[in-house]
Amino acid sequence: MKKLVYVPMAADIIHPGHLNIIKEAAKLGHVMVGLFSDRAIASYKRVPFMTYEQRKVIVENLKGVDEVVMQDEKEYEPNLIKYKPDFLVHGSDWNEGPLNEPRQRAIALMDTWGGKVVEPQYTKDVSSTKFNKSIKELGIMPHIRLAALKKSLNAKPMVKGIEAHNGLSAMIVEDVSVKDENGINQSFDLIWLSSLTDSSAKGKPDIEFVDLTSRMTTVNDILEVCTKPIIYDGDTGSEIPHFALTVKRLERLGVSAVVIEDKMGLKKNSLLEGSAAKHTQDSIEHFCEKIKAGKNAQITDDFMIISRIESLILGVGMDDAVLRAKKYIEAGADGIMIHSRKKDGAEILEFCEIYNKFKNRKPLMVVPTNYPILSEEDLQKAGANIIVYANQLLRASYTAMLNTATSILSHKRALEADKNYISALELISLIKGN
Questions:
Q1: Are residues 364 and 402 in the same domain?
Q2: Are 260 and 183 part of one and the same domain?
Q3: Which positions fall inside the Cytidyltransferase-like domain (predicted)?
């Protein structure tokens, strides 16, 4: 009887390194590939391009693979205990990074029943990271981007995004990443196309003055330089027939979702206070009709309509917010966004607690502009599924530009300001084709 050889693998992009590991494993016995689930992969890096089912079909048909089982978490212990393989085969690349600690535990566990860990040398100059970079440079088709948000929400308990207001800011969101204390790469999952920042970047008021055609120009600028899913800030959605047409246009472009708020009349930004804030909330019945019209207009199941509730902003109470959430979901909303201007975030947490008990619960989106004291961990623990930093990049860029202009005026030269920004050559080098 052949010995059992367990080979853990993500296999989102099959390359010669994978084939080499399987070849070495096949020399030892019966090869069982522990294929990481989408959820397991998303726990330590980006959501895979292919679904688990698609990857499974490919791996099952690779020469040397005898069977494929699911590994549903980053840690190896559950499957190792279940199957007790004679060998665990993994490329030497797991000696560093987020899989290092799981490696140590796997080695110790295998030793308890006399199993052996085999680590073939990682194939030189071949890595999924390099292939991912090449794919990003090529771009993605609209239908793939369109489905990416739902895919991420299915794979991860919480996704996070930040606003982009032009192509350059979208390039930052696309590429920026940091390693956390566990060595896991942290990056933004999506781009928020805010009406406030889009209008402000054009020097226009945030009152739905910038028309749809102009806003679509910004969408296209962003689509051309990034691969991440986009959530579009649709303001009130305008009149019902207009909203249906907007949904068709966004879906055709590959935008993943639109957020519309339950206000009517001349749109005013929700964060305004005092006499400047003249908000009128839409009726539940009329807003539900708008949601239904949008859902009827879309062609695919991938596009999402997220309903933004303004009850807490308008001070009409938690009960009204909860009632509206239930009614909007019944009308077909794919998600709920709850908004607040309170600095402590307490009413957001209270809403989350009630919302989590909904039988027909949909993804919950929050925008911690006015309550930055709440961390992502706080919000995820409360039940938020989508966290969006809605205007921080534009606010930061305004401050930086103002400081630079002031410095040049004050010193009558650019030398003092030059230390605070990239060189002209670096700026030119950012754009491919220069």
A1: no
A2: yes
A3: 12-130
295 in the same domain as 162 = yes
Q: Which of 86, 189, 198, 206 is catalytic?
A: 206
Rounded to whole angstroms, the Cα distance separating 309 from 328 reads 9
- Tell me the whole-structure pTM to 2 decimals: 0.85
pLDDT exceeds cutoff 80 at 269: no
For residue 249, give the amino acid letter.
R
Residue 38: give its domain's CATH number. Answer: 3.40.50.620
pLDDT in tens, 243-252: 999 999 999 9
* pLDDT in the model for residue 370: 93
Does residue 206 carry a catalytic annotation?
yes
pLDDT digits (tens, 9 = 90+) for 155-177: 999 999 999 999 999 999 999 98
**DSSP per position, 329-388:** HHTT-SEEEE----TT-HHHHHHHHHHTT-TT---EEE-TTS-TTS-HHHHHHHT-SEEE
Which parts of 49-98 fold into alpha helices (H)? 52-60, 77-83
* Structural domains of the chain, count: 3
Element (H, E) at 409: helix 392-411
**Confidence check: pLDDT of 104 > 90:** no
Residue 187 to residue 177: CA distance in whole angstroms: 5
65 C-beta neighbours (distance < 10 Å), count: 19
Query: Cβ atoms within 10 A of the Cβ of 114, count?
Result: 8
**pLDDT grade for 272, boundaries at 50, 70 and 90:** low
The contacts of residue 416 (CB under 8 Å, 6+ apart) are 407, 410
Q: Is 81 found in the same domain as 202?
A: no
Q: Which amino acid is at 42?
A: A
- State how far the Cα of 175 lies from the Cα of 431, in Å rounded to an integer: 13
User: Across residues 264-268, what is the average pLDDT?
Assistant: 71
- Give domain status of residue 135, yes or no: no
